[in-house]
Amino acid sequence: RYQKLMPCEEDGHFVIEHLMPGTILLTAFLSGEAGNPLDNRNVMREVEVNTERVTKVDIDFPVATSRIEGTVSVAGATMQHAQFHVNVTRDGAKEIVSGDNYAIDKTGHFQTDEIPAGTAELNVSVTLDSGVTLSKTLSIAVPESSTVSQNIIFAGTCAVSGTVTGLAKDQKVI
Fold it and tell me: Which of 36, 37, 40, 57 lies at 20 to 30 Å from 85 by C-alpha?
């Protein structure tokens, strides 16, 4: 796997030379002011690079005007730590706008601001007081300039108890 970092010019123009033909994953990182939620956004696009030609690729950072909010709960258990990550896909799987990891508060409430329209994939991870980690991935349609409510419910954990019989005197069950 090969990785090459190239800054853009002030007008956004870039050129990446000396690539091998084939499919590459082009990733553009958006920088902004410290504390700005957009600091951690990037756009990824698969690009087919052909021999002896320059492949033209334009990348547009979408205006992020939507929000996802809701609660996470686990049946019969207490959450010790919970977080989620959001990827938004636009134009099928050709372009992915990736966000930051977001915290879920102790009551289970979460909220994202400045999410672009598209299909959002929420990857939710919850660590219980018992140390068990539960994960779930959901896809949500996010319309432009809207708030989408999504509650995420984990079934919780179970236990099994019983007795093993029919053992010889010197046999042990491990």
Answer: 57
CB 99 within 8 A of CB 39: no
Residue 36 makes CB contacts below 8 A (sequence gap 6+) with none
Write out the E strands in the chain: 22-29, 42-49, 66-74, 79-90, 95-103, 109-115, 118-128, 133-142, 147-149, 152-154
Q: Has this prediction a pTM greater than 0.70? A: no
- Using an 8 Å Cβ cutoff, are 70 and 152 in contact? yes
Mean pLDDT of successive 10-residue segments in the chain (174 residues)? Answer: 78 88 84 53 82 84 83 78 79 60 82 83 83 87 92 80 86 83
